[in-house]
């Protein structure tokens, strides 16, 4: 199964609480931190919600 590398690129200050919670739920703790997660529809939905704050790359 494919994996996604998600990197937090922009601060969540000034954005809604649910977007801040989504960034935290992705496992991102600080700016420029990266996590690698299994690709699935639930994760894609979370990334879509905060796409303006994160950078996403496919990893094999």
Structure write-up:
The chain is of the alpha+beta class and 60 residues long. The chain has one domain (3-59): Ribosomal protein L30/L7 (Ribosomal Protein L30, Chain: A), CATH 3.30.1390. The protein contains two helices and three strands; from the N terminus they run βαβαβ. The protein has a three-stranded antiparallel sheet with strand order 2-1-3, with no helix packed on it. The longest helix is centred in the middle third of the chain and has 9 residues, at 17-25. The mean pLDDT is 97.
Brief summary:
The chain has 60 residues and is an alpha+beta fold. It contains 2 helices and 3 strands, in the order βαβαβ.
Q: What is the CATH top level name?
A: Alpha Beta
List low-pLDDT spans.
Answer: none
User: How does CATH name the architecture?
Assistant: 2-Layer Sandwich
> What is the end-to-end distance?
8 Å
């Amino acid at each position: 199964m494919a994996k996604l590398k998600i990197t937090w690129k922009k601060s969540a200050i000034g954005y809604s609480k649910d977007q801040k919670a989504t960034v935290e739920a992705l496992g991102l703790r600080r700016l420029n931190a990266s996590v690698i997660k299994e690709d699935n529809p639930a994760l894609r939905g979370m990334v879509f919600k905060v796409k303006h704050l994160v950078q996403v790359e496919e990893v094999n």
